[in-house]
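Dear support,

I submitted the protein below through the web form. The confirmation email said the job was done, but the results page showed an empty box. After a refresh the structure appeared. I'm attaching both so you can tell me whether what I see now is the final result or a partial one.
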Amino acid sequence: VQLVESGGGLVQPGGSLRLSCAASGFTFSSYAMSWYRQAPGKEREWVAIINDLGDNTNYASSVKGRFTISRDNVKNTVYLQMNSLQPEDTAVYYCSARVGVRYWGQGTQVTVSS
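What the results page shows now:
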């Protein structure tokens, strides 16, 4: 199993970013996918999840209404569209899949600052 995130960067408050996670080594279309994040000095927290078909999603209350998780089962990629970003969204963002055990990508840094 390999998960490779991309799309992070520096953005001003109120801005947007789209994260991508390319998956390989397992039957992507058969598994739910999740995004987590870890801010400096804090524990890793769950952000969003999407089911295998992509027709059911759920979000942490802190991001609901601002973030959208989606997936492309042809491209084996899961996305996280992040709008109205705030400084408290600054973190390393990880995609994750539970394929027997939980797998993690290497993470992508998102920094929200003016």
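Response: this is the final, complete result; the empty box was a page-load delay. The chain has a mean pLDDT of 97.
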